[in-house]
Design brief:
It contains seven helices and 13 strands. The protein is α/β, with parallel strands linked by helices. The strands form two sheets. It has an eight-stranded mixed sheet. Strands 9-10-11-12-13 form a five-stranded mixed sheet. Strand 2 and strand 3 (38-43) form a beta hairpin. The protein starts with 20 loop residues before the first strand and ends in an 8-residue tail after the last helix.
C-alpha cells in the first residue's frame, strides 16, 4: 500500500493533506480521509455483496453531503456511524450518482428532512424499477452547486453515460471528484446500458476540473491518472468494437484489446459488447475516432 503523507500544519493549517489517509478498516469497508472535509467509504475486496459500491461524504460548514448510499439501509448505517464519529453536523443532502441498486438502496436510511438529489432521468428510472428505498426529491438537469463560498459543493450533470442519467460530485476545497460509476478502477465495468459517445464526452468535461483524488464507483482510490486511464479504455472499446462490426464481425467474436485483459469483472463483457453492437447499428459509435 502507498505510504500516506501527512499534512504539515502551519499558521492555521493547509486546505488538505497531500495524499489521502486510511482512517479505519472495517470488516467490509475502509474509511479514507481525503482532505480537510472529504471522505471516501471504500468497499473492501470481496465485500461487494455487503456494501455494494464505493461512496463518500463531504463535511461542509452547513451540513454533511453524502454521495451514494450503497446497497442497503444496513450498509448506509455503517457510513452514518462513521459520519457521527467525525462530526455533530447533520446530513442535509444525499446525491445519488445514478439509479443502480448498489448506489441507492440505502436512501431509506435518511429521514425526510434530508434532501436527495439525482439526475432527472435516473429519478425516472428509479420510479419505473422501484429501485430505491426512498426516491430522490430534487431532480438535477444541469450543473449546479450546493451552498456557496467556502461551503460550496459542485454537482456535474454528466447525463447519459454509464446509465441514463449520471452525475459526479466535486469538492473544490479538497479537489476531490466523486465519479460514481462514470469511472471505475481496475474493471471492464458494466456498459450494458451505456451511451459510450456521451460517456467519453462527459468524462472529458469532468476531467477538466482540478482533481487531486478521483473516487471511483468501484475499485481502489487513486489520483486522477486512473480516471484518465478509464476514459482511454472506454474510447479503445468504442473504436475497436466499431471496427470489428464494420468488418462484419459478430458480437460473440469481439476480443478485448490485450492491455485491458488484466481488468476484472470480465463477466460483464458479453453484455457490454452487445450494447456496443446496438449502439453501432443505431449510429451511436460514429465519433470519438
Amino acid at each position: 500500500m502507498r505510504r500516506w503523507i501527512a499534512c504539515v500544519f502551519l499558521l492555521g493549517g493547509c486546505a488538505s493533506p497531500v495524499l489521502p489517509r486510511l482512517m479505519r478498516q472495517g470488516d467490509a469497508y475502509e474509511l479514507h480521509q481525503l482532505g480537510s472535509r472529504s471522505y471516501a467509504f471504500i468497499v473492501r475486496s470481496g465485500k461487494t455483496d455487503e456494501i455494494g459500491s464505493n461512496s463518500g461524504f463531504i463535511v461542509s460548514g452547513r451540513g454533511v453531503v453524502v454521495i451514494d448510499t450503497q446497497i442497503s439501509k444496513e450498509a448506509e448505517e455503517m457510513m452514518l456511524r462513521e459520519i457521527r464519529a467525525i462530526t455533530s453536523l447533520p446530513v442535509t443532502h444525499v446525491i445519488d450518482t445514478h439509479w443502480h441498486d448498489d448506489h441507492v438502496l440505502g436512501n431509506g436510511a435518511h429521514g425526510m428532512d434530508v434532501r436527495i438529489l439525482a439526475h432527472r432521468d435516473s429519478l425516472e428510472r428509479m420510479k419505473e424499477e422501484a429501485s430505491a428505498t426512498r426516491l430522490p426529491d430534487v431532480p438535477v438537469t444541469e450543473d449546479t452547486s450546493l451552498f456557496d463560498g467556502e461551503d460550496r459543493v459542485d454537482i456535474l450533470a454528466i447525463g447519459r453515460a454509464h446509465s441514463v442519467g449520471d452525475v459526479a460530485v466535486y469538492d473544490p476545497v479538497d479537489r476531490v471528484m466523486f465519479f460514481g460509476d462514470a469511472y471505475v478502477r481496475g474493471y471492464v465495468g458494466y456498459l450494458g446500458e451505456a451511451f459510450l459517445r456521451e460517456w467519453i464526452a462527459g468524462l472529458d468535461r469532468a476531467l477538466r476540473y482540478d482533481i487531486r483524488v478521483a473516487v471511483p464507483g468501484h475499485g481502489r482510490l487513486g489520483g486522477v491518472e486512473f480516471a484518465r486511464e478509464y476514459r482511454e479504455y472506454l474510447r479503445d472499446f468504442l473504436v475497436t468494437a466499431r471496427e470489428h462490426f464494420r468488418a462484419g464481425g459478430a458480437p460473440e467474436t469481439y476480443v478485448l484489446p490485450e492491455k485491458y485483459k488484466r481488468y476484472g469483472a470480465r463477466f460483464f463483457l458479453k453484455d457490454n459488447v452487445q450494447r456496443a453492437f446496438e449502439l453501432w447499428k443505431a449510429g451511436g459509435l460514429d465519433s470519438t475516432d
